[in-house]
Specification:
The chain has 122 residues and is mostly beta strands. The chain is 4% helix and 48% strand. The protein has one helix and eleven strands.
């Protein structure tokens, strides 16, 4: 099971960015996929997740409104759309997979992907 997050970079405040999480070695739709971030000096936190099968989504309360998670099963890839980015969104962003949403919510997923850096700065 391998996950690779990509699409990070430098973006100005107010801008948007879409991150991708490509899965290999397994079928992404068989798992709950979560997105996380870790800012310097802070704990890793969950942004949200997308449920297997129907594609329902979950977002942490603090993340609702500017982030949207989706999935393209044909490409075995999940996405994180980020809008109206702020300097405090600067972090390394990770995707992860688990069979249970609970394990994502408590930030202990079975599989972590490599992160991608997002920097929001003018």
């Amino acid at each position: 099971v391998q996950l690779q997050a990509s699409g990070g970079g430098l973006v100005q405040p107010g801008g948007s960015l879409r991150l991708s999480c490509e899965a290999s070695g397994f079928t992404l739709d068989d798992y709950v996929i979560g997105w996380f971030r870790q800012a310097p000096g802070k704990d890793r936190e969950i942004i949200g997740g997308i449920i297997k099968g129907g594609g329902s989504t979950y977002y942490a309360d603090s993340m609702k409104g500017r982030f949207a998670i989706s999935r393209d099963n044909a490409k075995n890839t999940a996405y994180l759309q980020m809008n109206n980015l702020k300097p405090e969104d600067t972090a390394v962003y990770y995707c992860a997979a688990d069979l249970k949403l609970h394990n994502l919510v408590v930030v202990t997923p079975a599989y972590w992907g490599r992160g991608t850096q997002v920097t929001v700065s003018s």
